[in-house]
Amino acid sequence: MSKYAEKIAAALDLGIQQVEKTVGLLEEGATIPFIARYRKEATGSLNEVQIAAIRDLLMKLKELDKRRETIIALIIEQGKMTDELNAKLLAADNATELEDLYMPYKPKRRTRATMAIEKGLEPLADLLLKQGDEEAEAMAERYVSEERGVKTAADALAGARDIIAERINENGQARNIVRLYFRRAAQLSSSVVKGKAEEGHKFESWFDWKEPALRAPSHRVLAMLRGEEEGVLRVHILPDDPEPVLVQWERQFVKRHNSCGKQVEEALKDAYKRLTEPSIETEYRNLLKERADKEAIKVFAENLRQLLLAAPLGQKRILAIDPGFRTGCKTVCLDAQGQLLHNETIYPFTSVREERAAVAKLEALVEAFHIEAIAIGNGTASRETEEVVQKCRFKTKVVAVMVSESGASVYSASDVARREFPDYDITVRGAVSIGRRLMDPLSELVKIDPKSIGVGQYQHDVNQTMLQKSLEDVVVSCVNSVGVELNTASRELLSYVSGIGPVIADNIVKYRNKQGAFTCREDLLKVERLGPKAYEQCAGFLRVRESANPLDRSAVHPERYELVEKMAKSVGCGVEELMKEKELRAKVKVDEFVSEDCGLPTLRDIMKELEKPGLDPRAKFEVFEFDKNVNKIEDLREGMVLPGIVTNITAFGAFVDLGVHQDGLVHISQMANRRVADPNEVVHLHQKVKVKVIEVDLRRHRISLTMKGVE
Q1: Which of 99, 208, 303, 396 sits at 20 to 30 Å (Cα–Cα) from 418?
Q2: Which 3 state secondary structure label does DSSP give 234?
Q3: Could you give the domains of the chain?
Q4: Which residues contact residue 661 at a Cβ distance below 8 angstroms, ignoring those fewer than 6 apart?
Q5: What is each CA distance from 665 to 438, 628, 670, 692, in whole angstroms?
Q6: What is the pTM of this model?
Q7: What angle do CA 283, 288, 293 make, to 5 degrees?
């Protein structure tokens, strides 16, 4: 059994066997999507979130053990290790406890205490802590030494108190008393830095703010810390009154109320104010920041998931427009596979004559390239461009859709875009990206760093390593849940498939370019560096639509092909017939195929796939239109009820695009008639909603909206 399984199981409230098997699979190199989809019997049907939690805790425990080994080695090197200390270090089950035990042995910069020790005052500190009958001043006289720089008894006592203060600060029990008090009583407060009020007006809500630290929502913590980072705010996380801590410390360290006891009492007050309070404030600040980061990352990850899994229009011939006033509208035509057929720039906003020419050009392009849908970027001049499109008289039915441009400029300047379109400038690449997003958001958005997509809150302020890992998990999860067509997928899309990665993805594309289309899944084993283990991980998530084997078009894993053939044989038909005929599938006695490594969960998954092979889990595409009478923020009036699209979800509410180039905010308190803890309970990204305008602040370009009572 893994030495970590028991701890992980207890922490996550899971079965030890479940955790043990999952840890084993992870250690063997299995990916989260593969384990969740194809190893349900081993894990007891754990989902991706649970498996990811096991992986993260496993890594954390390993890191803790690594740090423990380092600390033990460092203390042994100093020659200060004892059996008791070693036992405590081995028993420490969190980083805080471990670091507290190490603190007295940690190499220090020169402190007041170390200078006092250099002056020979440590024995005096020991005597004071014993708090015997002898007067403190009398003891101190013996340590006066001009040679060592201790001129008076008062100097000696001051040095001894510095040593005692440092020992108190390094006492684990004493620090825990402060930690517990901070959790209960710490206040998050902020004030404006003198002379910064005007330039930091965006932080004015926190110029004079105070609230219990534990109740502070993540977005407020991150906003205030950003204000501090920009030099506008001073932020503190401190209890109002340290007295309860000092009382407990006195019970711990002051044994007698004599002259020695008074020296210890004075030392502990100094220890709290000068050493422990700032130290625990930093610790608590990090704790709040970590909590806020996790919450913000969770919001970002959920938004990204919804964006990646947005409904695709599918393989349609697209005319895509990247709007612009002065520089014109870059217009591209794409075939049903997203390949660029034509590009040019139209200038509908320079004159009436140019507008007519633009309308005529769009009509001609739609007819010439048999366009089925028009994608309009939702940035500058988007509504005006939409109006131009509405003036066109097309001979066939063409839908016009507003598409999010977020991150398109990042893609158009990237190596990926340069590799795809080496002979075109960034404006053409950006327009192509907008068109492809309409066809298949997932396939196009995986080409962009998830952090650049802009669906989070304070993404630049949170822990970047944690953010990157979380967002990569989301992309991997989405790509594998949808499945990937092996013969048409880009390098970028393939690289997110379970077990593949960038190098093998590149080799797959090279193989495809040299040998032609893959004819079956098994052909993957001919790809350089794609061995049996990688094949096991990736095969079930890749589709080969032209394969002679119908199972290659489904999510059934090749390791179960023989089983499906037995199922088909049991009802007297072939695999393809079994997949087509509902009546034949109904005759299959699933229970008869249960084995040691293939239980009912996997068998049910197989039957589901046979019914609808390779089913796309994404919703069906729906066309959306903004209110035609509202094009800019000045058109808005209090009380208006308007259609909108949810563009971003944060912990404090949801932002809605009304088509006026400035998203409005539906605060969490305005989302429903009931109390809402999480905006994701009410809305999801790209959801079409109806909202009512409750306030328009033209000066600050802020729009306040409500969903309460809006039909």
Answers
A1: 303
A2: strand
A3: 5-77 (1.10.10.650), 318-439 (3.30.420.140), 633-706 (2.40.50.140)
A4: 379, 380, 382, 383, 632, 633
A5: 25, 21, 9, 11
A6: 0.88
A7: 120
